Amino acid sequence: MIQLTLCVTTSDRDRPSVLDTLRRLIEPTRVLSGCNCCDLFQDAQDPNRIALLERWEDEAALNRHLRSRPFRAILAVVDLSVEPPDIQFDWVAQGRGLDYIEQTLCTGVALEASQ
After folding, report:
1. How far apart are CA 44 and CA 115, in angstroms?
2. Domain range enclosing 68
3. pLDDT averaged over every residue in the chain
4. 46-57 pLDDT, tens per residue?
């Protein structure tokens, strides 16, 4: 899996336009072959900080997306960032969920009991 994280900081003036553009792109991106996730976030303390998170099955799916019309619109949003955008591609080999928390808590309880 490959995770794309894009963070931009907008001006007060551009924020509504940036959010509207990204909101309109979420659903068309979600239905693309190989897209596992596409979500939009806005910082609770600084509403001008906006993040887009995408997860792709493989590099071929991601590359198709990077060449798509929706992604060109995302790049236009990047141009509106008042600070250098943070764009990160992470290749994820393994993911875990609640099972990891349970294992860690159980192991921690066992360790505490033996001390």
Report:
1. 41
2. 2-114
3. 92
4. 999 999 999 999
